[in-house]
Amino acid sequence: MNLKKMDCGKIKLTQLLEGEFGIEKENVRVKENGEMSLTVHPKSLGDKLTHPYITTDFSESQVEMISPVQENIDEAVGFIKTIHEIVDASLEKGEYLWPQSMPPILPEDENLIPIASYGENGRELESYREHLSAIYGKRKQLVSGVHFNYSLSENVMKVLYQSNTNLVEDYDAFKERVYMKIAANYMKNHWFLVALLGASPALHSSYYKYICKCDDIVNYGKTCYAENATSFRVGRCGYRNEKEFILDYTSFNNYKNSINKLIEDKVINFAKENYSALRIKENSQEKITHLEVRHIDLDPFEASGLSEINLKMVHLLLIYGLLEDDSHYDVTHQKISHHNQVTAADFGLDGRVRMFDENGNSISLQKYLESFYQKLKRKLSVEDLPDDYASAMKEMKRLVEHSESRLSAKILKEMNNTDDYVNWHMSMAQKHRMSVKGKNYNFHGKMDMELSTQLLMREAVKRGVSIELIDRPENFIRLEKFGHEEYVVQATKTSLDNYSSILMMENKVVTKKVLEKSGIQVPKGDSFFDMEKAKSYFQLIKGSSIVVKPKSTNFGLGISILKSNDSVEDYERAVEIAFEHDDTILVEEFVTGREFRIFVIEDEVVGILHRVPANVKGDGLHTIAELVDLKNQDPLRGKGYKTPLEKIAKGEAEAMFLKSQGLDFDSIPEEGQVVYLRENSNISTGGDSIDFTDDIHQSYKDIAVKAMKALNVKITGLDMMIDNIAEPATSDNYSIIELNFNPAIHIHCHPFKGKNRKLNEKIMNALGY
Amino acid sequence: MNLKKMDCGKIKLTQLLEGEFGIEKENVRVKENGEMSLTVHPKSLGDKLTHPYITTDFSESQVEMISPVQENIDEAVGFIKTIHEIVDASLEKGEYLWPQSMPPILPEDENLIPIASYGENGRELESYREHLSAIYGKRKQLVSGVHFNYSLSENVMKVLYQSNTNLVEDYDAFKERVYMKIAANYMKNHWFLVALLGASPALHSSYYKYICKCDDIVNYGKTCYAENATSFRVGRCGYRNEKEFILDYTSFNNYKNSINKLIEDKVINFAKENYSALRIKENSQEKITHLEVRHIDLDPFEASGLSEINLKMVHLLLIYGLLEDDSHYDVTHQKISHHNQVTAADFGLDGRVRMFDENGNSISLQKYLESFYQKLKRKLSVEDLPDDYASAMKEMKRLVEHSESRLSAKILKEMNNTDDYVNWHMSMAQKHRMSVKGKNYNFHGKMDMELSTQLLMREAVKRGVSIELIDRPENFIRLEKFGHEEYVVQATKTSLDNYSSILMMENKVVTKKVLEKSGIQVPKGDSFFDMEKAKSYFQLIKGSSIVVKPKSTNFGLGISILKSNDSVEDYERAVEIAFEHDDTILVEEFVTGREFRIFVIEDEVVGILHRVPANVKGDGLHTIAELVDLKNQDPLRGKGYKTPLEKIAKGEAEAMFLKSQGLDFDSIPEEGQVVYLRENSNISTGGDSIDFTDDIHQSYKDIAVKAMKALNVKITGLDMMIDNIAEPATSDNYSIIELNFNPAIHIHCHPFKGKNRKLNEKIMNALGY
């Protein structure tokens, strides 16, 4: 069957871009000096045989990171970034992740390169690796890269099928044809991205000495490079089949038969030894599931080795393959494709080298790049693309026109500056590590979700627990490992708690009654659903400072504070106001002391926090405005709740509060003088979170545990007022205000002052992962 | 110490009425012929040794019902009414509760009267009963009555204490003095209520023959009565101490010493053999807890033997004792009190009999009643009382003025009509049973709470599980038995369910995803939080009938229904509208079939219900309006959700819907013709609930259980659309719409058609009680 014309005309380009995306990439672990590390895979990353996200490739030292299928490229890249940060943070002291596709310093004796070990159940994997070593040698196996897995959205595929109703084939056959067309055209065209995105133009002598003794490679000490190479990895020195194969792309069946023929002819031993730029992947029912693009080099300028924009170029080239006028991809085309790939890889920075166009005519690389870009643009009009894809198109154009902007050219340039392949790449590895230091709280690509959930998901990734975002805007996730399923909402709403405990915590009246019954101090007072009884309560409490509030308080509505109240009219009005907001109201004494948030999981107090209003500490030199700016430089502070702390604003509210103290933003506080910019202590208005976990007298922790047992709660953030944290609890020096059934965990993980209490780990432990 | 004057002037009367109230009352079980039943206490009422509400008094046949402490008299009476209904429904066929304080037909041989048996752990109780038999005889022990336990609100007591700051005593001493004053004055004044409320003016020969051979008793066959007696029970034939004691009321300590003296002198054996009209009760710290009024007879006209209004008279007389000018209650007063009590009891319908006033002067009963009422009124002004207490005052006045209106007079009159003590009382017992038939769903005094909760609390009472209304407006209750505590909200929100399952049920998107994953049919469709994706989904579903709705639907807002939709504009507008109400929307196919509510507890389907819109069935004779009125006579139908079904309205909506069918309220449907008055099937608009538990193919029940296991739910009301209930489930003949985490149970207990599925029992079982 031939690749017939398809009608995509009715479908918007934005819709065609819908799909599923997965990324795999490898990095070799290295020592500080750039030598490949010979240690074992970090224990804290769990069992690499079953871990869904973090495993090893060929070598024990070659960490492989795998993102699950994501709905868009930004999320797939974000997932890989997150995994990368987790892996990087798990390495032994002095180890780094090598940011380059071509290997670091390899041992002179290749036998020293450790093959990945998988234990009892992984013998098969190990013996396959022995087989590879025997055929290709161990050194070549350490060439690393990025694999990009792509499938078209199933919904879009169905629409596409319906738009082509003149076709007589069934849906499955149609779908197969779509993928075969994309695959063949991508194979034909991928030279374009090799030229633009290749990022491995240099080598270390410990590799090229044994693998790739090409005369035109410039040897500069131990570093060597080819001055116009874009990618040694997909060029002559890389990890390719020794002899390029000719495969049959006319149907998926023919394609597989042509690979089987190679195996029969003992050209390769396994189908997976087809190291083409693109593989067509199938499921156990032999239906195509997705395409795997394999020619992408690690980008050493990116901390995680890859970028959204470059992968969007790959995605656009795939879509172009669907939109392109149908054409054959026969033996001639494949030979041209091989030639063009290797030429673009080995000499792609030299626009004068000769390529073959699709008709087999010779053309200079630069001309071909330009004309091919024009063809792309005709099908992928920038106006019809979403902004991020439009940017990718523009970036392609820039790279076509400015070879010096390509990754390979930039690497060569920067390396010349540092004069050394190893040193430059190691400096990049160190720089990348520094760039995330103190910021290891976000789950990249999912920063629309709550920070607490992001932290929990990071820990899930580390432990190899699968994550499904079952209702993303609600922070509703499904976790699963070895069949053990948990549904978790907002990180702390879990199956550990029973419904009636939640309802007890949700209800202030009930919470108080139950705590009181257990002999735990709560603010004195009473609750009323009868207005007359509430009013007559005045006689008992007159003269004291009280708060009158509706049972369910929303944003403080309906709350009245009466200091040393002695006006029955004021009191009765307060009662009436409170009843306007709820059927039940509370009349409570004011409580003294400082408020602490005590986080308890099961029977253990895992974190205690005190919140302080937004403030700066004077140094006798800087103005308040300057001190605020300095304090806001803390990477923990951000805007819009994406960070554990918020930047202190210099707004009206802050100015007003300063004014009330006889200050303004230009005042210069004395050294050591603490100036508050807010009355309220909310973290959301720039307040500081201060860890007190180790500083509070044990008796308060015991009370917190007792309180949660009284309500039969497993996870809670308990708010306690304490007069003096150093003195033991008595019957009148503390008071429990509330048990929160949905406490944030991030404030305990990344406080302004104090330790990371790792509540994400604690919750994962409690969930049994 | 003397009873000094107290200042209650600043405290409103309504506030003084605040207090705590408990009731105990007994009924003898009888056979249909009025003979005392000799069977054992009903097994279904649990262990009478530990049951907090239902036990036995002296005899195995004498059921004692105990209300826990309640906040007002209406609730205490309601509790007793509820217990009474439960006990009455638990009796063996042919047994009744004898509605009279004086005994029914007793065995000629008093040894046949069975002493209550309490098993191994109740030997002490049994031997005390043996002791009583020996002293008083068994027959007298069967005299039954009402005990009214009262204490002043602790808050009011504190206010009272503060208002009397000129007093030097401490709070405890003050409180003791308050109760001693009320007690002494009540002892002095209670003759008044004996005269008005006595309700035992007659006897059966099997009692009087052995106990009370007074010459003036009129013997009429086996019935005998005294024509002016109000209460044999507190008169000469009743259960009193043979010789009235003189006690010391000057302080609680003196009071107790005077009782101990009686024991020393062997006048009585135990303190509880003091059968005064009022006892002062203390706790283990020897502090007064409450007062127990003991002279109240069962009211045979009331199903439960007592009425709110009569107990409010008792309460008012207690409060009067507090407000009355202080006075002594010495030996002379006590002798007068004894005389007045017995005279009022034995001759209280004769206004001419002579009483002693508080100064020891002789006065006719009628004069004394009138003058005493005037004194009462001066302290308890009707204008200052709440309506119900004002009514009680007015009723007192009526009873003072019209002796024929008193219970005793009415009993004597009605008995004369039926000519027989036994027959008349048995006819009352039968009438009372009939009056509650088919209405055993309410918890009296708590009808402000949801019917489901009322039903659950009824079952708790039956099983001897203590109930605390921890947040009444929320239907939040605490259950406890033998230390096993459960907090339950709205009858079905319990500790059995875990929080994440609740969140899954609450979230339609998640419910659907999880059910689909388990291979359970749900309405086809998809959810979206991206508007563009939602819009482009049109291409896949155009032409079919769909519903577009926000994820969280409130009262149907934001829902659009598109039948055979083929206008992209309509569809996109529907999507936009839905997004105005939620971040996430659902686009779903219309589902066919009939909707069933399947109630599942743990692994068992316990009830299946189908709801039918409000309708009547023609008989060829009556108009639709008449048919509605007839249908509305069903005791299950009420107004305002206090009953399992609602009355069908004859309002505008119904008239409109009839009109749309070419009918009006005056139309006369043919025999068998069903006319619908509403399109919607809600029970709240008069719909019928029809039990289908036994009629649905097993496969749907299996699916319901599978669905709840998929969500790890323990209690749910699952809504399923089924095409044909007789055919087994296939992959396209049913669909699960929703799992409700808060399903009503009453609709399954009292359906319009079908069995009571006793979900209240099932839930109590599941809770482990």
List keywords for this structure.
homodimer, 769 residues, alpha+beta, Creatine Kinase, Chain A, domain 2, D-amino Acid Aminotransferase, Chain A, domain 1, Dna Ligase, domain 1, 4 domains, seven-stranded antiparallel beta sheet, five-stranded antiparallel beta sheet, 37% helix, Glut_cys_ligase (chains A, B), ATP-binding (chains A, B), ligase (chains A, B)
Structurally, the number of domains of chain A stands at 4
Described by strand count, sense and barrel closure, the largest sheet of chain A is: 7 strands, antiparallel
**Low-pLDDT residue spans of chain A:** none
Oligomer: homodimer
Q: Greatest chain-chain interface?
A: A-B, 48 and 49 residues
Give the C-level CATH assignment of the largest domain in chain A: Alpha Beta
Q: What is the number of strand segments of chain A?
A: 28
Tell me the β content of chain A. Answer: 15-25%
CATH third-tier fold name of the largest domain in chain A: Creatine Kinase, Chain A, domain 2
Query: Please, how many helices of chain A?
Result: 26
Chain-averaged pLDDT of chain A? 92
Alpha carbon gap, first and last residue of chain A: 50 Å
Corresponding CATH architecture of the largest domain in chain A? 2-Layer Sandwich
- Radius of gyration of chain A (Å): 32 Å
| Helix/strand structural class of chain A | alpha+beta
What proportion of the residues of chain A is helical, as a percent range? 25-40%
Approximate shape of chain A: elongated
GO molecular function, one term (chains A, B): glutamate-cysteine ligase activity
Enzyme class (chains A, B): ligase
Protein name (chains A, B): Glutamate--cysteine ligase
Catalytic activity (chains A, B): L-cysteine + L-glutamate + ATP = gamma-L-glutamyl-L-cysteine + ADP + phosphate + H(+)
